[in-house]
TrEMBL record:
Belongs to the RimP family. It comes from Hymenobacter nivis. One of its GO terms (cellular component) is cytosol. Residues 36-83 form the Ribosome maturation factor RimP N-terminal domain. Keywords: Cytoplasm, Ribosome biogenesis. The keyword Iron-sulfur does not apply. It is found in: Cytoplasm. Pfam families: RimP_N. Transmembrane segments: none annotated. It comes from the Bacteria. This is Ribosome maturation factor RimP.
Length: 157
């Protein structure tokens, strides 16, 4: 069985509906004997298992209605883990005040506190470590086009 990614994407948008607290981060559809759908969702305040389960049930119902209840596939609906890169501009807002590690398109890397997030980019107060001393540089703005990858620096303080 082959699942049409574009059709599944439309079904997924229908399953999410008008819920402004849930948005799609990623959808992968494998082309194997038993197709695997992996849906990664997020929200402005993060996402709990209840929201993932609700979207999963709605999506599975739509797939079953279209492909038939005997269709064989695997469905995983999840939220990004703490170690996953931020891939959608809407993910940054809830991380204000946390430390981010940025890999920029020009090859440089920056680490610092996320001070602000806009639809265009982020403002970071970069932390520079020299031996045992830390210095904080003045805030700098990076557009999302400048950012190749961004991850939250997990701290156990």
């Amino acid at each position: 069985m082959v699942l049409d990614r574009a059709l599944v994407l439309q079904m997924l948008h229908d399953a999410i509906g008008d819920d402004v607290d849930v948005f799609l981060v990623n959808l992968t559809v494998s082309d194997s004997v038993l197709p695997k759908l992996t849906v990664t969702l997020d929200g402005p305040l993060g996402l709990g298992i209840e929201e993932c389960a609700k979207v999963s049930r709605r999506l599975a119902r739509r797939i079953d209605e279209h492909y038939g209840e005997d269709a064989a596939y695997s469905l995983e609906v999840t939220s990004p883990g703490a170690d996953q890169p931020l891939t959608d501009p809407r993910q940054y807002q809830r991380h204000i005040g946390r430390s981010l590690a940025l890999k920029l398109a020009d090859g440089t890397e920056k680490t610092g506190e996320l001070l602000a997030a806009t639809p265009e980019g982020v403002e970071i107060a970069e932390v520079i470590k020299v031996k045992t001393k830390k210095s904080i540089l003045p805030a700098a703005f990076y557009t999302f086009g400048d950012i190749k990858e961004a991850t939250v620096v997990i701290s156990f303080k």
